[in-house]
Amino acid sequence: xxxxxxVILFTTASGAGYGLLVMLxxxxxxxWLPADRLFGFVAFAVALGAISFGLVASAFHLxxxxxxxxxxxQWRSSWLSxxxxxxxxxxxxxxxxxxxxxILGTNHSAWSIAGLATAGFAAVTVACTAMIYRxxxxxxxxxxxxxxxxxxxxxxxxxxxxxxxxxxxxxLPAEPASGVGSIxxxxxxxxxxxxxxxxxxxxxxxxxxxxxxxxxxxxxxQLIAPHTEENYVMREMGYRVARxxxxxxxxxxxxxxxxxxxxxxxxxxxxxRPWAAIPAGLAAVSALVGVLMERWLFFAExxxxxxxxxxxxxx
Length: 315
Prior knowledge:
By secondary structure, this protein is mostly helical. It has a single domain (5-310), classed as Formate dehydrogenase/DMSO reductase domain (Formate dehydrogenase/DMSO reductase fold, Up-down Bundle). Helices cover 66% and strands 0% of the residues. The chain has ten helices and no strands. The protein has helices at residues 5-29, 37-59, 79-103, 110-134, 146-169, 178-201, 208-212, 232-237, 243-269, 277-300. Helix 5 packs antiparallel against helix 10 (277-300), helix 6 runs antiparallel to helix 9 and helix 9 (243-269) runs antiparallel to helix 10. The model has no long low-confidence stretch (mean pLDDT 84).
């Protein structure tokens, strides 16, 4: 599929924002994050800012952005609509949670319930985003059991490194989240590797023979191209990235998203405050850059089965 930069920015930014909300909700419920007003204000501003930026970016992907409101009406059958409904609903517990933390200076007891609700709604929103792609059976690389887990793992990973960076930047009197971030990075890396392995080793589901129904007569070969020049379907549904380039990009994405953040977190643990904020911040920046690259590959390596009618031999 042709990588749409608006969707890449949307899924990366909103995923990081929702991942940060998950970490805030769980951290408050576990009484790991104290109700420091400055930290709370900065954390909620970053989370809601990333989510709102992502939603605005996604609007530019629509052919008629002014009709975006109609997407909310199809929640019974559309994962896109469900995502929109849950995304808006997430603002309610987040607002209550934020009021308790930032204004009243508390995030424990009853307020932690709002935190857990915030974390739950945020995770469900990310899962709905992943299901938009997971539900498309016509794209084998997306019709994969690891897609939802991959989106959730990367969201929580970016949220973990962000909350760790914010703890250091605001000098919050709490234990740094470098340990949690390291675990999240390892889990996200393993799930990403499993996803890549799955799409690399999966047997072709369709061929030009099964697509045309002529396979029973023998090998089907295309004698002449269906179009004399590239059209919309070929450009959008059959975007191709060379295998050798994909391998290099996978390595670059892995280094930026997983290796460098892990190294930065290791340096952070050996650095005293306030200097520990530097490697902590670099870990968050590197992770976000790596997820942007990973998300570009997620689209670029996916091909619609319609490409079988445009010269592809198997899919």
